[in-house]
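Page 47, continued from p. 46.
Same chain as before, 345 aa.
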Amino acid sequence: MGNHLPVINVIQRRKSGRVKLLICQQTLVFFLPFTPLILSCSLMVSLTLCLSFVGGCRGTSKASIDGKRAFLHVEKLAGFGPHPSGSRAIGEVQQYIQNHMIQVGLQVVEKGFVAATPLGNVPMKNILGVLPGKREEIIMLATHYETKFFTEFEFTGANDGCSGTGLLLELATALSKVRNDLECTIWFVFFDGEEAFVQWSPSDSLYGSRYLASELQAEGVLQRVRSFILLDMVGDKDLTICREDFSTRWLQDVLWSVASEMNYQRYFQECNKQVMDDHWPFLQLGISAIDIIDFQYGGSESPGLYWHTAQDTLDKISADSLQSVGEVVYHGVFRIQKELFGTAK
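Result:
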């Protein structure tokens, strides 16, 4: 990594209003036009389903993920154009991320450093949004926000860079509205420098995640991180998420179970891929971690026809895919709390 020059700026936290929604409200309204007898039966079925789901994912019924809103974030991020580490455009992306997290009432922490790359020293910045819970233990939700550096063509990175970032911003919005239900503290982590500059290797990749994992370990904070969920390439219209082989099995089981309960098995499939990604430095230090990634982006073979090409553009991204992954992760946070502490409240 070379010479790291840590810079930490804490941006003032602002309070935001809270909106509370019930996941069964729309279902109940749907049945209103029917006759009283049908209405009565339908309400009973709806209430039963609602209570059954809440029993499985307690504490998750007060807010929801909006895939269309996540897509608007992706659209905005892609609109900044290519934004590899150290570029002028990445400064605009960083400001966008920070502004949104302040808007939803998170404490924002910038962790800057200088990475030694094959192309020379490059300034980088990890961005953290902190949502305090009842406990100091941390569930970390993460993504990388920079796009890969190319000279041969313009790389937008709509899926590889923008989709995970857009969805993580939406998760920050949704979870901030139910902060009183959070047992764990949630960290929303936006990594810089996931991509290699020349050739993927242990020293030319994962700059931001390697830096943060090492820093947290040195500070004695890493032991508070109980789970790490990485979002990468999650916006593909033809979404296929396999179990990533390096990832922690119990975390996979939790999220795949939630996906099954929500009838998202067509997206969270029982297939396997091996992907070296930003979860790796945390796995190496003993942290339970999972990579949620669609690594067959375009076609049925990995890594896919659109991966690291000029075709990674906004027209390949689906709000429905963002919605599906977002709902699974959102509800998964509460299920993970239950697994860790026996309660979601």
